[in-house]
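Record pair follows.
FIRST:
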Amino acid sequence: MKAIHFDTPGDPDVLRWVDRPDPSLAPGEVLIAVRSAGVNRADVLQRRGLYPPPPGASSTLGLEAAGHVLAIASPTAASDPLPAWLKVGQPVMALLAGGGYAEQVAVPVGQVLPIPNSVSLEEAGALPEVFLTAFLNLFHVGGLPFGSGQSARVLIHGGASGVGTAAIQLCHAAGLITYCTVGDAARAQRCLKLGAHAAWNYRETDFHAQVLQATRGAGVDLILDCIGAEYLDRNLRSLALDGRLVLIGLMGGSQANLDLALLLRRRIQMLGSTLRALPTARKAALCADFATRALPLFERGALRPIVDQTFPMAAAAFAHRALDSAHFGKLVLVR
């Protein structure tokens, strides 16, 4: 098969579309003919040599993909039956630990999801990684209510990103009050259309001051943060009593001073989270919960993948360059 490969870490030009060995299919795995694959920040970090794949995962880039089922290997244990809906030839999307930038990918059956009728095969390649990341960290790690009728206030940093656009939509669908930070006015307006109650340009305003004004000094119940050190102090001061800071990225650095007295006074919880390295069983449980509670919302039009641009898979280098420019939602490789 063909796949995107690089021999040594470096800039996007190291990425090449070359012949690679076909993936082997272990018991309980599904072989997918890839038609689209989302581009994520983690792919860029791996290309630069800063984010190696977990043990046993494919070294090929790509944390999500969509395509058609080529083969299914039955599980070894009778207690792990295959889902009745899964058939050879069916269009599916999958959460991956690696391997999406290729013609074929093998993935555990628990990480394979049906594509909603409202979502195209191209759009489906932009769905699993970001929506499952947002779902995991908002509702599993962060403990926010989903479909319970309860409300909470949430601040999402990077609202125009893939995870950000997914998180805004999920919060809106869950009836939560959502704020976000973005890099310009145009993307702020688009976040508002997705369901954010307010979107603040971090280049022009202090989000901490805006949070206090919007919440009448109370603060938000949860912050989903991809920035890290640069925002730590303001994040903590923006949280309400018993608030939670869920850290999912370090774009603003990994080292910062921490005022522990602030955590004690406001009973704040700080939670670090990554999806890629979770055990297979936890990923399967997450996918099953997402399929039950969130996938039906795509059919009703309440959720949708946001695709900014598509690129031929062989031109992955161009997509990686585009990731560093202004965009809204996801970049997707197609073949």
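SECOND:
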Amino acid sequence: MDSSVSESPNPVPSAPRAGRARRFFLVAGGLLLLYLVAAYVVLPLIWRTDARLHPDLSGTPNITHTASGIPGDPLNIGLAGSESDVILAMKTAVWDPADPITFRSSVRIAVDSVFRRPDDDAPVSNLYLFGRKQDLAFEQPVGNSPRQRHHVRFWRSDKLDGGRPLWLGSATFDERVGLSHTTGEVTHHIGPDVDAERDRIVDDLRNAGEVQSVYWVDQFHRQLEGRNGGGDPWHTDGRLAVAVLRTHSNMPATGTNSSQHP
């Protein structure tokens, strides 16, 4: 009679297999722990630190006004940099400084509009923020007439962004020349999509290599639509785009339409 013991039908798992399983759970546990630390500790800390570098814009005006106090165009863009940085960045991005309004420049833009002659430096009307008209203004003509153009006005604010001046701007697109719906004066009528003009400037500055970084101020506008001083409707997603500009050291701010500001 055979007295040998038969082999077990379910052998015990080998040691290498058990070791691999243990290593898998250790790696998975380590990755989970790393995710939790990054998502709930490190990234919120970085976000709070980065937010402190940028100014608090709560309570900052977000609408310009005409000389008679009528609400004007909405603010939709900011630039962080010196006056020279702003001027050189916009010029590099192929935005021309607008001429100041004088009798001569007003006659010229009227004649150019009638005869459809291009005017890269056509003046823009004055709008007011912080109790003064724009400090800088730039434009891009469309076609062969100043009837249509992209343009932006900038005001230097009292805020600093990383130690550099913050300029707040209102960028709009002039669709046509006509009579103001509120005063009857001859004026440019703007297109309603002011976000498109905001995004255009950011893209132009980026493509020109003049931007260090861009951040967005959500809910800068609580009211997402309105009408400007000429009665033209506008709408926005409520965000303010702020481009931190590349620094140009010791470059003069020449060839501008800058006004005096504090």
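COMMENT: The chain is about 30% helix and 30% strand.
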